[in-house]
């Protein structure tokens, strides 16, 4: 009966299978949801939207960039929630993060508190931490490649971004380059549930059937992990108080919130800090590792980028500064192109919160209207749009030139950080840390693809973010 939902509303869409709807191959681990969505997106060229079923739930897949703009920016109040469900009583820390919070006042407060930590000035103040981690990474690579040039891109970039997170969020030394299995990395990976069968299943349920998470009482952030986060924060607070240390950083900021006018509990502090791990670590490290892998694959681009880096380095008295890195325009274009080609999130997910009617005005789309009912799940297929040849010619090619003039990029077809009121809070922090790491790396090493890599890449169907099965193997060579 439920499967008549879209047909009854005259919304075009593929025929669903019993129980699994249109995402069956993802359930049995054959293909990732990103790939399935891309295929449906392509098949329905010319339609402004497509009605699909995620398992038995009707989901509106939006194709028309004008409709996308209305959903995520202009008429945001009709679609202000992300399509995720976390039970506050079961998983209070995760439930208190902006991504999970429903778009009311609690979300606004959490969001504005966190945004204050990622202003340009704040990101600049974290720049020395990124530089230090980069220098440590360069030494680590030097040691490693004296044995073998081969490294796995995500492992390397994960160590680097986590080393930053450790200091920026918790004021501790991450020591992520000091040991083969650093304890802080083990903690972060446990946080994200890597290598745990049940965690993977839980994450998949959260993504595929959000409404069932309450039913199954699914908990993503376990008590012992939350306690450890709080321990890091309170230890730093105690140490600073005892020694009269003022750093004006994230830890100090959490302390000022605690003594501010709005009630701010230890749970709130834990929740805010968990954002660095939940929303900041995996996203940044994956974006960086794909970037590094693209550079390994495109040696001319890599060489051109290295020239820009070396010129800037010399112009700035043999150093890199926050401003000099921001000024590198080829670096910006290369990072954008890598994020376009490798959409790590693949989709933005919203729920309709107030009834909404849309009729396309763009003549490229069939003139069919829709009235979206409250509670309807929405997918904005960013990954599919970013590889749509109508917006990006030869989308499978890595061409940073596309991004030389941002005005030429069709609006709402490139959104690696989302857009509108729910835009990623850590956008400039994430981009800066990736750039700092890459700049130091390319100054010292040439990177090539390891011979064992097989193309086309195969993606892990069980993981919510873009994940290459077997990893991205690269070789690093010292530049003398
Ligand atoms: C390159 C790295 C990153 C990428 C590609 C990325 C991407 C995204 C995307 C696509 C969204 C969803 C936006 C939407 O639904 O419209 C998002 C949301 C978010 N991101 Fe990031 N992110 C990155 C780094 C970070 C970092 C470093 C932090 C913080 C430490 C962060 C914190 C958040 C938060 C809190 C949200 C939820 C915002 C809300 O719903 O109000 N992200 N990010």
UniProtKB/TrEMBL annotation:
It comes from the Eukaryota. Heme binds at residue 424. Keywords: Endoplasmic reticulum, Heme, Iron, Membrane, Metal-binding, Microsome, Monooxygenase, Oxidoreductase, Signal. InterPro entries: Cyt_P450, Cyt_P450_CS, Cyt_P450_E_grp-I, Cyt_P450_sf, Insect_CytP450_Detox. GO terms for molecular function: heme binding; iron ion binding; monooxygenase activity; oxidoreductase activity, acting on paired donors, with incorporation or reduction of molecular oxygen. May be involved in the metabolism of insect hormones and in the breakdown of synthetic insecticides. This is Cytochrome P450. Belongs to the cytochrome P450 family. It is found in: Endoplasmic reticulum membrane; Microsome membrane. Its cofactor is heme. It comes from Phaedon cochleariae. Coiled coil: none annotated. PROSITE patterns: CYTOCHROME_P450. It is a peripheral membrane protein. One of its GO terms (cellular component) is endoplasmic reticulum membrane.
């Amino acid at each position: 009966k439920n499967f008549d939902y879209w047909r009854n509303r005259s919304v075009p869409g593929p025929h669903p299978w019993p129980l699994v709807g249109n995402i069956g191959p993802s359930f049995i681990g054959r293909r990732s949801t990103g790939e399935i969505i891309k295929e449906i997106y392509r098949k329905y060229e010319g339609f402004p939207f497509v009605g699909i079923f995620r398992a038995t739930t009707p989901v509106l897949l939006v194709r028309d960039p004008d409709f996308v703009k209305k959903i995520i920016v202009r008429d945001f109040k009709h679609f202000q929630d992300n399509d995720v469900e976390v039970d506050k009583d079961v998983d209070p820390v995760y439930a208190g993060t902006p991504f999970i919070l429903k778009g009311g006042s609690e979300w606004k407060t959490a969001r504005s508190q966190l945004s204050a930590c990622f202003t340009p000035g704040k990101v600049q103040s974290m720049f020395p931490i990124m530089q230090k981690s980069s220098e440590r990474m360069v030494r680590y690579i030097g040691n490693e490649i004296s044995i073998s040039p081969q490294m796995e891109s995500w492992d390397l970039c994960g160590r680097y971004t986590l080393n930053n997170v450790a200091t920026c969020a918790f004021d501790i030394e991450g020591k992520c380059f000091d040991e083969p299995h650093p304890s802080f990395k083990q903690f972060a990976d446990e946080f994200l549930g890597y290598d745990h069968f049940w965690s993977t299943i839980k994450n998949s349920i959260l993504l595929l059937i959000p409404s069932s998470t309450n039913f199954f009482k699914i908990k993503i952030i376990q008590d012992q992990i939350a306690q450890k986060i709080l321990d890091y924060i309170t230890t730093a607070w105690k140490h600073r108080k005892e020694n009269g240390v003022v750093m004006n950083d994230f830890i100090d900021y959490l302390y000022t919130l605690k003594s501010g006018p709005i009630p701010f509990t230890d749970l709130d502090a834990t929740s805010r800090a968990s954002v660095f791990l939940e929303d900041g670590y995996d996203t940044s490290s994956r974006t960086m590792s794909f970037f590094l892998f693209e550079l390994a694959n495109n040696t001319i681009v890599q060489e051109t980028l290295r020239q820009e880096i070396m010129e800037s380095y010399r112009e700035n008295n043999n150093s890199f500064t926050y401003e000099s890195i921001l000024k590198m325009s080829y670096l910006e274009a290369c990072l954008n192109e890598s994020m376009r080609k490798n959409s790590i999130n693949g989709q933005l997910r919203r729920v309709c919160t107030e009834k909404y009617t849309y009729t396309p005005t763009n003549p490229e789309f069939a003139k069919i209207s829709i009235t979206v009912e409250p509670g309807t799940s929405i997918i904005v297929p960013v990954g599919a749009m970013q590889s749509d040849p109508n917006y990006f010619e030869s989308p499978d090619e890595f061409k940073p030139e596309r991004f030389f003039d941002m005005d030429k990029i069709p609006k709402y077809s490139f959104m690696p950080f989302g857009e509108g009121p729910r835009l990623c809070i850590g956008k400039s922090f994430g981009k800066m840390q990736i750039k700092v790491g890459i700049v130091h790396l390319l100054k010292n090493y040439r990177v090539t693809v390891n011979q064992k890599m097989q193309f086309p890449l195969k993606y892990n169907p069980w993981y919510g973010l873009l994940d290459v099965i077997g990893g991205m193997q690269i070789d690093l060579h010292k530049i003398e």
